[in-house]
Amino acid sequence: MPTKSSLKHCKCRIANHSLLKMNWLMHIIILQVLLGQVLSKLTCTNITNIDKCSCKHDLYGDDIEVECAGLSTLELNLMESIMKIECNSDQTQWEQNFGQIDINKLHYAKCLLSDTGINQTVSTLGINKIQSLKLVAMKLNGSLENTYLSNLDSVETLDITLTKLILTNESFEGTPRLTKLYLRENYIEDIPADVFKPLTLLQILDLGDNKITKINSDLFYSIPLKSLNLDTNYLTSLDLNSQSLNNLDVANNRITSLTVGRLNQLLNISLNKNILVTMPDQTFKNTFLVSIRFSYGNFTTIPQRFLTNLDRLLNVYLTSLNIEKVPENMIWNSQNIINLSLASNRLNGLPVMFFRDARKLKLLDLSKNQIENINDELLRPLINLETLDLSNNLIIQINKYSLRHLGNLKYLNFERNKITNINREALNVPKLKTLKLAYNKISNLTSNNLFSFYYLDQVETIDLSNNFINCIDPGWLNLIKLININLSSNNFTVLRIQDIQYINEIVKTNLNNNPLEVIDLSNLEIFAKAQSPPYNFWNNRQINLSSDKFICDCRNYEYARFLHNQMPKIVYKYLQIEQKLICNDGLGTEFSNVNIESLTCDWNIFEDVDKTDCFECECTYRPHDKSALMNCSNRNLILAPKVIISGRNINYTELNLSNNSITELPNYENLNIKKLNIGYNNLNTINITQLPKNLTDLHLEHNYLTMISETNLTNILPNLNNLTMNSNSWICDCNAKNTINFIHKYSSKIFDLANITCNQSSIQLLTLTEEEVCQEELNTNMIITVSMFLAVLSSAFSLGLLWMLYSNNKTKIKIWLYSHNIKWPISEESLDQDKKYDAFISFSHIDIELVEKHLVPGLEGGSSPFKLCLHYRDWEVGDWIPNQIARSVDESRRTIIVLSQNYLQSVWGRTEFRTAYSRALNERRSRIIVILYKDIPENDLDLELQAYLSMNTYIRWGDRWFWQKLRYALPHRPAMKNKTRAKIIVPDKLNSVRLT
Please, are residues 513 and 489 in contact by the beta-carbon 8 Å criterion? Predict the structure, then answer.
């Protein structure tokens, strides 16, 4: 303890709302004094007299700061009047005081209690009196003798903790006015018989968390003790004699027997975590018990009249005790019980007369038991009950009259039972606000004699999650105050707007984790518009949806319109949906990412007036444009179908007859066919006038057509936008005049214009005229040509021979010359002068290793490097992909296609090929370079790629002339001087690729 000797260096701060800090050799003192008293006594004027200290006074506030030198700290809280001392050394000397200071609370921490007593330190500091003293982690030699706490007559509250105490009968003689004594966590083992005798005013005693094994029964006799805490000790029995004790806590001990007969004023008792097996009948008959808490034990047998005749009893909590049975008279004549919990036991029921006198009960918790049935008369007396929890039991059915007397019930919990239905009259509880029925076996909510929510006109929350429900009850229109319903994890497969309307202006409906397949919003606009002003439904209906079973076809087209904001604004004021719906395609596709225009469904599902049947073909309906899709491809058809699907509400039909053996088409002139694909068949004639008048797309490629025979093409196919004709047997004589005129007329619509050539020739029909194919002097010119040839044959034989050799090998010669830097009169056209890149590489991301390790270094290196466009390097983040593709093709002189099995499976690869092919046809220039990578069966190629590869050359990866051919096919650029040629890495053992 501090004594008057020498002043050590310290730091002291006194403030109206701050702390006064001073470093000592022994302890830290925190002072808190009444503000008016301290300011009247502690000023810079009297503090500056302290040796080796200085004082600063804030002119704009009440702060006074004293600077000294030392090791300990002193702090003073003026608002709460607290002084605290925390010691850093066992040897501290203190001689200075602050005059006479009145404080209420003094705290010590980590200090050595000397036998001179705490009172001497209090006097040294100039403290007049204290009411509350707290000692934390103190150090003392031996037992707690009376000298340590002597002359503390003003102390009313004493708190000693984290200090190893050995009590004596004289320990508290110096604190006769104590009313509150806290002795937690002090390793106390024994309690002397007369240790508390001097404390004639003691009302609260806390001996918790010690090592006490026994308490003398008369320990508190003649002491006016109100509250006693003995929790977390080693007590095995308890028998106390106290005429004033109200509150007793003996939780977490080892008590096997308990006697409270002499605790006449006992109001509250906590017996949690003890090993009591039983107690005497009417254990608390001589008490005024208000509350009993007993949890986590093995109290399997409750004595007769256990809590009877207790007029003041309000709260009973007997939980987690393995109780199997309760006596019928357990709470008889205890008429004021408000809260009763028997949760987490093994009860399979309660005696019918158990609640005979419990009319004032407001909360009843019977959860986590084994109750199978509720007797119709069991709950009859509970007319004031507000909360009933029967969750986690074995109840199968809620009987008709089980709850009928609970006129004030507001909260009802039947979660985690085995309920399959609720009798129609069972929920006639008019004041109910919350109903919980989650985790049961309810499958049907249809209003009938077995189930009804008809009477719940005051209910606000219903939880029906984790059941087997698949539809919503129309009777829910009566639930006018419902604001929250949980239907998650049920069996909903279809949700209709008719169902949603039954949910009357609900704030939130949870339908997550249902196997939803279809959301039918076909009448949503009608329901939304039918609402009358002032539209009090706005933003009320909010639904949460999630499913991984969603059908991503036209059955959900209306819902797709809703998601893509394609409905009137009033719809979104009527209904708001938060969703995460995954297509049942096995790919994890989110429905919100599906293109609304691609949604189709089977023709049989589509309902329409005068709908024709579909035979032999695969027929679907697309609601986006109200079209019928008739796919008859790959069906070995010899005759084209004459009956084409249609309906009253169908705008047009798309007919696909490709990849069959059809030789002629029926007369489709008067049919509403907009797109017709007859490619890859055996057509040898085509009557243009018999084609549908509204046709926009026509595919005739890969047939045996020789000519267009019609002479009048004025009003034929006025809406045609897309036409393909390549790989036919087009003749190029005078009979081809109509064909040539037809091609010239529709040249801007023909996708494969550059590949429409004369039979067994590479002459493009587009380059021919009527005069060229019908020359009258053809024979004369031929004779003159032959004569001239014979005249010069002898003199030009050698030159002709050289020319023949060149003609047959001119490409290889040019490639060889180019690869050896021998100049050749080659130049790029002015059309390409402003293009940004030499080539755009189109490839599947799976083949990126070939591109990064071989193509890019091989082309961007060397003496004549090329500038490449790569999507992972040169595309703009966030831009629309189709725009990126078109821009890359337009800004590049060539498009290099890395054609592999992976590329064929890439949607974007096909888009890139078609974009480049279209640009090449429009400009009539060769812009596509195909690199054949790895084996690709011919059957895997679609029609366009088969057609292209059949009429164009390509480079095989692994060809020994690969790099020479590739560089030659690219725009020819002059060699760059003074640059080191980059090393081209070509893999060893490259196998050639063949189309099979």
Answer: yes
